[in-house]
């Protein structure tokens, strides 16, 4: 047992080369995740959160995608330089993944049970019979009613929530050390979302897997994550333990984002907005990427990109003006 | 005095046809006996989970889907009785905004063309002044004059929704059905659109039927809320009363299931188990009974009628006796968040001044 984190992403840069332009989807992203912890990666569309999670599994299509720099160390090995065969052994083995829309990630022409059995037989040397039993056991574990019958169902015969449970069973079948969940509950209704989040927390406790939860929903982050990374336009702008981030948000973007979330417990007359919109990925920005929407932006913000620096232990912010009170 | 919009007994069933002879093999009861009113300048939110029939309610009341039964009255005119010609004229007064305006805007028409079409069709503008009116619409919806020459794909999601709103607004409608208008948008943009819809309502006195699955957004938009489960209203109340004292167990579980953006208040566990049942074969008695924590024998056999309880209308046998003050303490944003937001707001005000 070492102190090194299970997953350590350092200075990752991912670009897309499209029609002669270079789109910088992810720039200088660093994050780390220890065993048994849940890390939330939060941000709005186009912030690079999905590209970051796809990069860890090395699933960014190349071309047009290019890994332009940095390292992704999983248990000490750099995934970006790993031979494809070894990478394939990791995916679905030691690294499990859950996507937003299970209908597009499950194969429609195989039964749910067969898909789990296939994953088991690829990553371990279970006999077909043992794999079958294990698949049913997994479906039971994720709370699918009458798992023995459901194992013979095709994905389209299940409801959205049941399909997501099958996805989770598939992702966890080989007892991964790392589970990457990209918007796992976004397509689900709130009552089903609560059930799935419960299930994920439960299974994490049981298997001790590390979880990276990619989401746009600050509510989901607050409910499930130990630590949070806030991304904006391809960069990490703030990272902190969840409690610290919500009690003490530092980056002007984090503050704006939290204030913009409508709260079910409190009625207000007007919702707070962040004027403007996210700069497109092909725009050439030399300074802070939030400067165009930030009321505190100064000349320095527009010309120099602020590095992520720790304001307090474990709470990093990429803003020249942090803490905001200094600007008042 | 009667309300601007009255919906009585609205019902929409879809026959399921099977086999070579296309015989009717069953009926999906998407909407069953739904009644409500919307006043001038009022917002009624229709909430529920996917498949509960909330979108069908919106479409049936506009007669985009012909209702199976029921009566819709707008400003004293019975919309459901109108002949096709009169109905076309009536559409000027009742409009709709969709979740994804990309699917409802013609990709080959510029924004100016899209907005000019209803103006000319309903003779609200002449070819001479139509450009000015389009410009006015754009600025009302927070768009720039140079956006007029652009095509839908050139806009971001939030701007595209503004175009969708401008199109609905063009005919000066009395009523707009908003079908999940902010569900596809990022939170910071979502707040902009919610505020725009409220501003337009205050300015023009439009009535909204606001269809949404997001109770937090509904809390900020709605004057009254109707909660729909499997095609029927199970609770209807003023928004403040509904959130403070939800009376139907389904409403309570919807409110409890919404994840709070506050790590100090973590949900203990999911409030209800199981999935929404099929509308093709709804449960007997109260449709919610298979998932309801309060269910008794009576609920399995006898469907509760929607009846007045206090200031709410509730369809639950135990509405009077079950605990209604179930809501959790209000989770206020943190002190530091409010302080920093005030600093940012002050800086922004100074910037614009």
TrEMBL record, chain A:
Keywords: ATP-binding, Cell membrane, Membrane, Nucleotide-binding, Transport
Chief localization: membrane
Bilayer disposition of the protein: Peripheral membrane protein
Spans through the membrane: none
Pfam families tied to this protein: ABC_tran (PF00005), oligo_HPY (PF08352)
Domain ABC transporter, residue spans: 7-258
GO biological process, one term: peptide transport
Name the record gives this protein: Peptide/nickel transport system ATP-binding protein/oligopeptide transport system ATP-binding protein
Automatic annotation (TrEMBL), chain B:
Domain ABC transporter: residue ranges: 5-255
UniProt record similarity statement: Belongs to the ABC transporter superfamily.
GO cellular component: plasma membrane
PROSITE patterns given in the database record: ABC_TRANSPORTER_1 (PS00211), ABC_TRANSPORTER_2 (PS50893)
Organism: Jannaschia seohaensis
Organism ancestry: Bacteria, Pseudomonadati, Pseudomonadota, Alphaproteobacteria, Rhodobacterales
Gene3D superfamilies linked: P-loop containing nucleotide triphosphate hydrolases
Keyword Transport attributed: yes
Name of this protein: Peptide/nickel transport system ATP-binding protein/oligopeptide transport system ATP-binding protein
SUPFAM superfamilies noted in UniProt: P-loop containing nucleoside triphosphate hydrolases (SSF52540)
Annotated Pfam families: ABC_tran, oligo_HPY
């Amino acid at each position: 047992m070492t102190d090194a984190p299970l997953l350590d992403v350092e200075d990752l840069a991912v670009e897309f080369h499209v029609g002669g332009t270079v789109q910088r989807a992810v720039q200088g992203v660093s994050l780390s995740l220890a065993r048994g912890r849940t890390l939330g990666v939060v941000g709005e569309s186009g912030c690079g959160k999905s590209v970051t999670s796809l990069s860890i599994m090395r699933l960014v299509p190349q071309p047009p995608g290019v890994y332009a720099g940095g390292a992704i160390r999983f248990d000490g090995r750099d995934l970006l330089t790993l031979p494809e065969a070894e990478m394939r052994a990791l995916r679905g083995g030691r690294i499990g993944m859950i996507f937003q829309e299970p209908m597009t990630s499950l194969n429609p022409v195989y039964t749910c049970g067969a898909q789990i059995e296939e994953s088991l037989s690829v990553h371990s040397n279970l006999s077909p019979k043992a794999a079958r039993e294990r698949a049913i056991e997994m479906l039971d574990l994720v709370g699918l009613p009458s798992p023995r019958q459901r194992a013979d169902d095709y994905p389209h015969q299940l409801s959205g929530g049941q399909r997501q449970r099958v996805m989770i069973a598939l992702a966890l079948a080989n007892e991964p050390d790392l589970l990457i969940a990209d918007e796992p509950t976004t397509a689900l209704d709130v009552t089903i979302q609560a059930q799935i989040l419960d299930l994920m927390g439960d299974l994490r406790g049981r298997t001790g897997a590390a979880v990276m939860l990619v989401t746009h929903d600050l509510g989901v982050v607050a409910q499930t994550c130990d630590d949070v990374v806030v991304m904006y336009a391809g960069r990490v702008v703030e990272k902190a333990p969840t409690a610290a981030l919500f009690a003490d948000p530092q980056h002007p973007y984090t503050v704006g984002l939290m204030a913009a979330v409508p709260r079910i417990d409190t009625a207000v007359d007007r919702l707070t907005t962040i004027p403007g919109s996210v700069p497109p990925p092909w725009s050439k920005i030399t300074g802070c990427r939030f400067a165009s929407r930030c009321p505190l932006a100064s000349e320095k913000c527009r010309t120099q990109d602020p590095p992520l620096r720790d304001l307090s232990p474990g709470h990093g912010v990429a803003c020249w003006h942090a803490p905001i009170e200094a600007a008042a | 005095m009667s309300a601007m919009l009255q919906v009585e007994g609205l019902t929409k069933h879809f026959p399921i046809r099977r086999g070579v002879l296309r015989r009717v093999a069953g009926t999906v009861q998407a909407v069953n006996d739904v009644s409500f009113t919307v006043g001038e300048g009022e917002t009624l939110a229709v909430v529920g989970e996917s498949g509960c029939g909330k979108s069908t309610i919106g479409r049936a009341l506009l007669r985009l889907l012909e209702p199976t039964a029921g009566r819709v009255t707008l400003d004293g005119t019975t919309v459901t009785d109108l002949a096709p010609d009169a109905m076309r004229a009536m559409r000027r007064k009742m409009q709709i905004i969709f979740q994804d305006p990309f699917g409802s805007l013609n990709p080959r028409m510029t924004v100016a063309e899209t907005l000019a079409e209803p103006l000319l069709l309903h003779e609200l503008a002449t070819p001479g002044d139509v450009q000015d009116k389009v410009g006015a619409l754009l600025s009302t919806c927070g768009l720039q004059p140079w956006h007029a020459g652009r095509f839908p794909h050139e806009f971001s999601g939030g701007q595209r929704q503004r175009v969708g709103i401008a199109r609905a607004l063009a005919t000066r409608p009395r009523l707009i059905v908003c079908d999940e208008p902010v569900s596809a948008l990022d939170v910071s943009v979502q707040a902009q659109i919610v505020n725009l819809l409220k501003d337009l309502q205050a300015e023009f006195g439009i009535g909204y039927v606001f269809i949404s699955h997001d109770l937090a957004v509904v809390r900020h938009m709605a004057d009254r809320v109707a909660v729909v489960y499997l095609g029927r209203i199970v609770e209807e109340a003023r928004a403040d009363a509904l959130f403070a004292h939800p009376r139907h167990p389904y409403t309570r579980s919807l409110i409890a299931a919404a994840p709070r953006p506050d790590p100090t208040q973590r949900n203990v566990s999911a409030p209800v188990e199981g999935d929404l049942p099929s509308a093709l074969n709804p449960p007997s008695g109260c449709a919610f009974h298979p998932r309801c924590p309060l269910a008794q024998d009576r609920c399995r056999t006898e469907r509760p009628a929607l009846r007045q309880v206090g200031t709410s209308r509730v369809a639950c046998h135990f509405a009077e006796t079950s605990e209604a003050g179930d809501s959790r303490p209000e989770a206020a944003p943190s002190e530091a968040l409010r302080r920093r937001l005030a600093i940012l707001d002050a800086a922004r005000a100074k910037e614009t001044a």
